[in-house]
Amino acid sequence: MAKQYSKNLEKVQSMVDGTYGSKIQSGYDGVQKKREVGDIWTDSDGVQWEQKEGYRSKINKLASVGIFKATCKDCEKGILKNWDKDTHKADGRCYHCQLNYEMDLKFDKWIRWFAYRRLKELKNMVSIENDLIQWIDEREKMKQEKIFDMSVANAMANANVEMSIKKNS
């Protein structure tokens, strides 16, 4: 065997024999406490833990939503995907909760679903009307602005005209 491995093998053999004396290692194996599901405790570093079913979970001081900016008002799931964001802007629910909500209205209380859809359409019409009014106002302001100021053009033209007529001889 190579020389480099022989030293390691000698150390391992001396550890197995119990004659390894260069370093003594000691450790502390504390008493393992049996924790029940739902128990909450604080460790020596000040971190709070909770015993779940089969695992331990660190308790954060952040909200349960974490980094999400918005949550669904029914399932309280974070809004991440684009279709969830679009639906959340309109209704405050994620896409799937909104589908379930409309299906419940449609099949259980048909007249409520019809009224709900009509109200959404009317709100859309109002917003479209407001956008149109704003567009018309902007167009009117643009028409009233003087794009070509003729007074400046006339003054420049008149300044370059000489009053005498030169004849070729």
Strand content: 5-15%
- N to C succession of SSEs: HEEEHHHH
Number of helices: 5
| Large-scale geometry | elongated
Report the C-alpha radius of gyration, rounded: 40 Å
Q: How would you write the strand order of the largest sheet?
A: 1-2-3
How would a crystallographer describe the biggest sheet? 3 strands, antiparallel
Helix proportion? 40-55%
Number of strands: 3
Query: What low-confidence regions span 5 or more consecutive residues with pLDDT below 50?
Result: none
Secondary-structure-based class equals mainly alpha
Distance between the termini: 119 Å
Mean pLDDT over the residues:
79
Features:
single chain; 169 residues; mainly alpha; 3-stranded antiparallel sheet; 5 helices; 3 strands; 50% helix; elongated
Description:
- The chain is mostly helical and 169 residues long.
- Among the domains are: 44 residues, no CATH class; 38 residues.
- It contains five helices and three strands.
- A three-stranded antiparallel beta sheet has the order 1-2-3, with no helix packed on it.
- A hairpin with a 5-residue loop joins strand 1 and strand 2.
- The longest helix has 35 residues.
In short:
The protein has 169 residues and is mainly alpha-helical. The protein contains 5 helices and 3 strands; from the N terminus they run H-E-E-E-H-H-H-H.
Describe the SSE topology.
Layout: H1 3-17, E1 40-42, E2 48-51, E3 56-58, H2 82-91, H3 95-108, H4 110-144, H5 150-159
Antiparallel strand pairs: 1-2, 2-3
